[in-house]
């Protein structure tokens, strides 16, 4: 995609990209690709269907172009307006608020929608709650690393063995022009001033707030511009105005810092250091939910595998952790599905909750 310095992004002239219509298109990130590539909500939808939910009926999918940055989501007529219209239509059809289920980036998307696009009054009347699976709340270092490393395997000098050699340059161009990736970099409000990237040649260090500098110093100018335009939309720890369930894995090695090694001096180009997380998202990003209501509830969060916090001023937040469960594996986890079903039943009260996935 082509983006201006202000973060306005569009497809190149002569190319139009839009979501493929239909419920099944929301079951994966690449609908129509054979072999199940990018399958996301499919297993969950299959299980819910067996329990009585109807695909495209009281179980609906919100379709949006996930490549785009938040500035595009929030514009008049953008995907947030479309989501609001879809939720209002569902509430009118079924006479009860919607329970939203999101995966990974979708959690940031819905959280931003609920906090900053609609009023608290609207949320109270239209949203029963939100169930987040592997929410990338405060970003991940994998996003800027993908932009900088491009087609290379980040832990070697060689090309990525999963991508044909003739397509490596195309992959680099694709990653550097995907404007949602800079938005998925670590959020400064959560990661603070700690160095996340260090260049061994120059000695330069980059914190979350300086990530645009690393992108620009790595010749990813467009990505740096989009990061600067997207930073205002990054996670700042504010609680959404709806009851929330946060489900995520822990205890899986996850990149927490990067050292850029001198070119040609070692077999590796990047030395990656690992810590706790779900293999894609580090723990501080996953557990943003812990702090949403901790202050109002008189606690400082929890390290337990299961917790709930609430206050008289904010809806409750429920956190469920699954040791050893990877980022994408959560959609296949029986334990996570049991918690999703429990949440849906509680959000639906005496009846079954209408659900919307994205």
From TrEMBL:
GO molecular function, one term: O-acyltransferase activity
Compositional bias per record (Low complexity), positions renumbered to this chain: 297-312
Disordered as annotated region, ranges: 1-21, 297-321
Gene3D superfamilies listed in its UniProt record: alpha/beta hydrolase
One annotated GO biological process: lipid metabolic process
InterPro entries: AB_hydrolase_fold, LACT/PDAT_acylTrfase
Name recorded for this polypeptide: Group XV phospholipase
Annotated organism of origin: Chlorella sorokiniana (Freshwater green alga)
């Amino acid at each position: 995609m082509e983006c201006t310095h202000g973060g306005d992004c569009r497809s190149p002239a002569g190319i139009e990209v839009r979501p493929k219509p239909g419920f099944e298109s929301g079951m994966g990130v690449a609908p129509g690709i054979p072999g199940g590539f990018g399958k996301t909500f499919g297993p969950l939808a299959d299980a819910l269907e067996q329990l009585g939910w109807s695909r495209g009926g009281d179980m609906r999918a919100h379709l949006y172009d996930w490549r785009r940055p938040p500035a595009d989501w929030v514009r008049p007529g953008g995907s947030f307006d479309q989501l609001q219209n879809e939720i209002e239509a569902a509430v009118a059809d079924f006479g009860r608020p919607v329970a939203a289920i999101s995966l990974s980036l979708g959690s940031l998307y819905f959280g931003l929608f609920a906090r900053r696009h609609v009023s608290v009054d609207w949320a109270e009347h239209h949203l029963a709650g939100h169930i987040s699976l592997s929410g990338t709340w405060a970003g991940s270092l994998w996003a800027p690393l993908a932009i900088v490393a491009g087609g290379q395997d980040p832990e070697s000098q060689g090309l990525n063995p999963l991508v044909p050699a003739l397509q490596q340059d195309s992959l680099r161009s694709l990653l550097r022009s995907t404007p949602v990736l800079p938005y998925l970099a670590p959020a400064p409000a959560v990661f603070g001033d700690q160095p996340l990237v260090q260049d061994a040649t120059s000695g330069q260090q980059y914190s979350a707030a300086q990530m645009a500098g690393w992108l620009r110093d790595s010749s990813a100018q467009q990505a740096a511009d989009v990061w600067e335009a997207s930073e205002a939309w990054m996670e700042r720890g504010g609680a959404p105005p709806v009851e929330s369930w946060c489900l995520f894995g822990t205890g899986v090695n996850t990149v927490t810092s990067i050292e850029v090694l001198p070119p040609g001096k070692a077999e590796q180009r990047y030395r990656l250091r690992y810590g706790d997380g779900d293999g894609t998202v580090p723990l501080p990003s996953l557990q943003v939910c812990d702090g949403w209501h901790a202050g109002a509830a008189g606690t400082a969060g929890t390290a337990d595998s299961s917790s709930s916090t609430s206050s008289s001023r904010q809806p409750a937040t429920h956190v469920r952790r699954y040791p050893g469960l990877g980022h994408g594996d959560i959609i296949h986890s029986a334990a996570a599905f049991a918690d999703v079903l429990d949440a849906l039943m509680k959000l639906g009260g005496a009846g079954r909750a209408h659900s919307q996935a994205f």
